[in-house]
Structures are given as C-alpha cells and as structure tokens.
C-alpha cells in the first residue's frame, strides 16, 4: 500500500512511539499532584511546552495544549468572541477555511448573533490580502485566516493581513495546521495573536495539539480544574504532549531538506503526468505537500475506489468532511455550487518519507484506472 494522504494525517515516527511508550510505562502520575510522581509528570508537561514555545519563538506561558487544531481553532474564535463581544460584533474569515473554523463561526452567528463576513476567492481562485482587509470594519474584533489550505495547498497572505492588523484593534487568528513542521512558523513575525496546530499533521500522535496566544483574555471551552493556567480544564495528555514535542523536534531538525525533497516529488509527479488530460486546482503560491488534480469527465469517487483497490491511498478533499455527499466547499467557492469540477478532483498529499518510486507507482496505477 502506498500512502499519499498525509494532509489528512501522517504516520507516527518510531522515535515518537518510543518516547510515548516510555512515558506511559514510567510517568503515570497526575501533573497536578504535589508528590514526586506528580512532579515528574509536571516536568514532562513543562518540557513539552518549552519545546513548542522554542519552535514558535514565543514564551511557554503563551502556549496552551489542546486535543488538536479543531479545539484550538474553536477556543480562539469562540473563546475570544464571547469574552469581547462588548468591543464589537463582527468577525472576518474566508470561504475556504477548515470546517472547524467555519462551523465555529456559524455557531457564533446562529447562537450568539455575531455578524460574520467570509471573503470569497477571486475568479482565478486566489484570495488577496486586500480583499480580506477590505472586509475589516471598525467594529471587527477578530480575523481568522488559514496559512495553507488543506485541500489545494494554497498559501494565504497571512503576513500581509497580520501587518495591517497591527494597527487595528481586531486580533488575528492563523490556522497553521498544514504548515507546522514544514516551514518556519513564528507567530510574532506574521502578527498572529492566535495560532493553531495539530501533532498528527507532522508525524506526531492524534488527539493533541496546541494554541498559541498572546496576553489575551478568552473564555475556556472546557470548565473544571485549573490546568493550563485555567485556560483548559482536564488532566494533561502527558504521553501525547511528549510525542508531539518529539515529532516537532524531528521536523525542525531537517526542515529545509524535507521541504526540498517534497518539492522534488511534486515536480516529478507533474512530469510523469505528461500526456494525460488533466488540470490542477492550484490557485497561486502553494505548499508542495498538497497537489489537487482533476480529470475532466472522470468521477473522482470511482477513481478513488479504483486507486484504493490498486493499493494507493489518496483522497478527494478534507478528511474532516469524509463520508458526506457534499462537494468540496473550497472548490465550490471557486467554481460555483453546481460546477462539474466539483466531482473531478483528487488530492495527493506528500510527506518527506514518500519516494520517487512511490510517485511512479501512483502514476502507473492512475493511468490504468483512467483507462
């Protein structure tokens, strides 16, 4: 089986499995306990937080651990909006955000009366900083923009938007799920007040992530104990945190080499597709880790099934909307709700562990399936 669905999740590194197993076997204390078992566990949590903070070049105090990017996104959007609704009632985002952002915004609109503006892509599929900035009003209290789209790899202009918001009262949330561990991610450089990420996108375990936040007040989503400086109640997922820190250390150790390898894989893939009738759903600058291809007149569900039977694991879009009959909201935003392009696309997503031989095998299986 060849795995080319890394935007959905990545295989866990053996080194990560080892440190997690060691913690499960040896560090079972509750980090909130004051005895030696608890202190040892608390030290593991503290060390993991320092690793994440050092990678982001922020202070550990500004990192809150979560169950993943979805919770981190919801905490930033819902927690901040509810805590600051007296300052304004308007939030801005884009139509191509991850469902965890769009659904959190819908909740704020439907249940709490917030006004939401979602910026639509241009005809060429791009979203400019200017189009986002034009949507911002004096009463806007939060702007949320993903760094890279999970379905197409499209890079959004987070630095430009962040620079504008340095002179506006609205806070800036960046969903960095698809770039963390792949490119340098430093919230202060791009003017992000909130930044979300999830461990399982960079070869860490599922069920753990983090939210960077500055010195901002926001309501917790989970109430109970005083863990995470009262920002998120619940006994810490110690082995998950240690695994996430280990995975991020590995990713950062060879960041440039990994990126260059994946860039070469993408180039090789495109070269091998010569002669096929296809087009790319690529809208401006994109991360090489995600390639969205489409084959005119070919139903992507049938193509996906054929490739799966041939031992190739890819997808047609976000794993968080898998199993639904709804077309991609990302491509719908670009092409329209009833466009034929919505049923023609497949997503190939690489990791640094994929090989040129796997790309060749995928293209062979693709050509056979298209026949």
UniProtKB/TrEMBL annotation:
Q: Name one GO molecular function term.
A: metal ion binding
Q: Which SUPFAM superfamilies match?
A: PLP-dependent transferases
Which reaction equations make up its catalytic activity? (sulfur carrier)-H + L-cysteine = (sulfur carrier)-SH + L-alanine
| Alphabetical keyword list | Aminotransferase, Iron, Iron-sulfur, Metal-binding, Pyridoxal phosphate, Transferase
User: Does the record bear Zinc-finger in its keywords?
Assistant: no
Mark the transmembrane ranges. Answer: none
Q: Does the keyword NAD apply?
A: no
Tell me the domain of life: Bacteria
What cofactor is this protein dependent on?
A: pyridoxal 5'-phosphate
- Pfam families for the chain: Aminotran_5 (PF00266)
Q: Where is the Aminotransferase class V domain?
A: 2-362
Q: Which family does it belong to?
A: Belongs to the class-V pyridoxal-phosphate-dependent aminotransferase family. NifS/IscS subfamily.
Question: What's the name of the protein?
Answer: Aminotransferase class V-fold PLP-dependent enzyme
Q: Which organism is it from?
A: Lactococcus hircilactis
